[in-house]
Each structure stands twice: as C-alpha cells, then as structure tokens.
C-alpha cells in the first residue's frame, strides 16, 4: 500500500463505538450498539465556514490529494494510504469534520488491533492502530474499495477445514453435509470464481448444528459491520475464503444467515459508481474552500 505522510501533532479521535463490534465465544451471537435507522442517504456534512479555516492549508492539501487518489482509483486495486499521524490538531479537526463517520466499520484483531471507520464518502476509510492500552498509535486515511488489511491479512495463518464427522456432538444432524460441501468448494475455489453461498436460513438446522459449524469454521480476525436500513454483520472465519454473513432488519431480527466462499464478500466492497460519487462529493467540499483540483 502506498503511504503519504503529513506533518503535525498526533490526535486521537473516536472511530468505533462501544459494543459496536461482536464479542464472540463461538456462539455467533451479536448485539448491536444502537437500533438501525432509516436507509442511509448522503448529505454534505456540516463543515466550517471558509474564513474559519483559511490558514489550514495542510488539511486542504491532504483533502485535494484524497480527491486525486479516489478520482484515479479503480475498484480492486490496492488501497492508497495517507498518513496523518503527525498532523496538528487544528488541521486534523478540519479533516474530521469533512470526512465525518459513515455506515461501515471494520475491526481487525490479529497480531495487532486495528479499528477502521468508513467516512461519509464511500471508499475513504479512517484506519487506526490501537496498542494494548487502547491508545491510537497511528492514524491513516485510505482510499480503496475495501481497507488494505482486509485483503492482506484476513486469512494469514488460516487452517484446513477438518472435522470429525464420525463422532458428532448430541443434536448435530444436518451440519455434516454442509461441512463436506464447504470442504469440496474450498478445494476447487480460486480467485476470480463466483462466490459460493450456503443459505442457512432455508435449512433445517438446530442450534447444535449451528454451534458445530461455528466450532469447525472458527472465528477469524476480521469483523465488518454495516449499519443502514437494518444491519449486516460480516465475520471472517479461520478457513481461507470462508465468511459468515448475517443480515438484520430494522427491528434487529435476523432475516438472512449465510456462509460464503469468496475472497471478499461483494456486500463489503465499495462499488465503482460509489467511488465516482465520492470523488464528486469531495470536489463539492473543496469548492467551498476554493481549493482548485483538475477533473
């Protein structure tokens, strides 16, 4: 990932709210931090008047660089990073107000802890590394259809899908055929193939079946949560290219429960047209501050 550095003093900002991510112990339960709202639509975030930020040239230049980054970005490419860890507080504050907080958050819990929040501009992400004391040690803005850590690190250290189907726990009846199906699909699936989806909602699975599936697949390091009209929770497993995806309606009731074999689920990836829209919206903001960028 390409990283650009901006100078100044570090500042901490809240990215992911308390309890906004799943705390799993193998049971696949999940509690949302707030009820779903109305369907998300973009409104230009409230931003300072031009005369209030006329001297914040560092932030304005960074926002212009973000515009060129997303304008020239093609979905599927590696993310482009802009490191603002050393930017001074006043310039960071302007960046915070322009980018604001969008509908998607990501947490990576592996060899490090990384909290990621999408901005109101789809495809622009705030990425923070968190130390053992819960303090942010770096602050990077990424341009990409998905944060770089998701592509690079989700399945590092993944393990083969192995299960003892001869000695099943009591109550497990319909999970074994799914384990066999997944194992066969993992053997043949390669990058570029269409995703293979198992719709658990339509199957007669007991709680014991679901727990057995969860035990066999394990809990991976990536959790993606999208909040909008309803919620979508996407969890990686410890098996390469296997994800567990759940959709909830506006009443917080699960309406779709799937396992998907794919490198990254399509529902998690910003679409090309959304990236184009984000470039246009960022230019509108830059126009407010008389920052000239070439189309």
In brief:
With 295 residues, this protein is of the alpha+beta class.
Q: What is the CATH topology assignment of the largest domain?
A: Ribosomal Protein S8, Chain: A, domain 1
- The helix/strand series, from N terminus to C terminus, equals EHEHEEEEHHEHEEEEH
Strands of the widest sheet, in order across it, are 1-2-6-5-4-3-8-9-10-11-7
Give Rg in angstroms. 21 Å
- Shape category: elongated
Number of helices: 6
Proportion of beta-strand residues = 15-25%
The overall pLDDT, averaged over residues, is: 87
The N- to C-terminal Cα distance equals: 24 Å
Number of domains: 2
Amount of helix: 25-40%
Assign the CATH class of the largest domain.
Alpha Beta
State the low-pLDDT regions, or none.
6-39
Fourth CATH level, the homologous superfamily of the largest domain:
HupH hydrogenase expression protein, C-terminal domain
Number of strands: 11
Largest beta-sheet characterization: 11 strands, mixed
CATH architecture descriptor of the largest domain: 2-Layer Sandwich
Q: Structural class of the secondary elements?
A: alpha+beta
General description of the model:
- The chain is an alpha+beta fold and 295 residues long.
- It folds into 2 domains: 2-154 and 270-288, Ribosomal Protein S8, Chain: A, domain 1, CATH 3.30.1370.140; 175-268, 2-Layer Sandwich (Ribosomal Protein S8, Chain: A, domain 1), CATH 3.30.1370.140.
- It contains 6 helices and 11 strands.
- The protein has helices spanning 57-71, 89-99, 148-153, 175-188, 207-217, 272-288; strands at 2-5, 80-83, 104-109, 113-118, 124-130, 136-143, 196-199, 222-228, 230-236, 242-248, 254-261.
- An 11-stranded mixed sheet has the order 1-2-6-5-4-3-8-9-10-11-7.
- Strand 4 (113-118) and strand 5 form a beta hairpin.
- The longest helix is centred in the C-terminal third of the chain and has 17 residues, at 272-288.
């Amino acid at each position: 990932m390409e990283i650009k550095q901006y100078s100044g003093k570090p500042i901490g900002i809240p990215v992911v709210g308390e309890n906004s991510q799943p705390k799993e112990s193998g049971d696949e339960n999940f509690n949302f931090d707030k009820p779903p709202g109305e369907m998300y639509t973009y409104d230009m975030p409230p931003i300072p008047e031009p005369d209030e930020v006329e001297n914040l040239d560092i932030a304005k230049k960074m926002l212009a660089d973000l515009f060129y980054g997303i304008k020239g970005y093609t979905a599927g490419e590696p993310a482009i990073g802009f490191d603002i860890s050393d930017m001074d507080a006043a310039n960071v504050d302007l960046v915070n107000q322009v980018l604001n907080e969008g509908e998607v958050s990501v947490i990576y819990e592996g060899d490090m802890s990384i909290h990621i929040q999408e901005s109101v501009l789809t495809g622009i992400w705030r990425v923070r590394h968190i130390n053992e004391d819960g303090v942010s040690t770096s602050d990077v803005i990424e341009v990409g259809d998905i944060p770089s850590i998701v592509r690079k690190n989700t399945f590092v250290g993944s393990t083969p899908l192995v299960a003892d189907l001869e000695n099943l726990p009591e109550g497990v009846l319909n999970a074994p055929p799914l384990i066999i199906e997944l194992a066969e699909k993992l053997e043949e699936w390669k990058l570029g193939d269409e995703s293979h989806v198992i719709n658990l909602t339509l199957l007669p699975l007991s709680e014991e079946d679901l727990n057995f599936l969860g035990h066999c697949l394990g809990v991976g390091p990536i959790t993606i949560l999208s909040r909008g009209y309803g919620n979508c929770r996407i969890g990686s497993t410890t098996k390469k290219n296997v994800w567990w995806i759940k959709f909830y309606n506006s009443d917080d009731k699960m309406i779709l429960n799937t396992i998907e074999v794919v490198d990254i689920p399509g529902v998690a990836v910003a679409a090309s047209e959304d990236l184009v829209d984000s470039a246009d919206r960022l230019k509108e903001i830059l126009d407010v501050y008389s920052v000239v960028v070439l189309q």
